[in-house]
Amino acid sequence: MLTAVAGAPASRAAVAAHTGLTRGTVSSLVDDLLADGMLVEREAPRGGRGRPANPLQLNPSGPCGVGVEIGVDDVGACVADLTGTVRAVRRVPSDHRRHDPAHGLRRAADIVRDVVAEAGLPVAGVRVALPGVVTPDGVLQRAPNLPRWQDVGVAELFGSLVEAPVSATNEADLAALAELWDGQALRDMLFVSGGVGVGAGIVLDGRLFHGAGGRAGELGHVVVDPGGRACTCGGTGCLETVAGVTALLRAAGAADVDELVREPGAALDVAADALGVALAGAVNLLDLPAVVLGGVYARLGDALVERVGAALRARVLARPPVRVLRAAVARDAALRGAAIGVVRELVGAP
Question: Can you tell me the mean pLDDT for 27-31?
Answer without folding.
Answer: 83
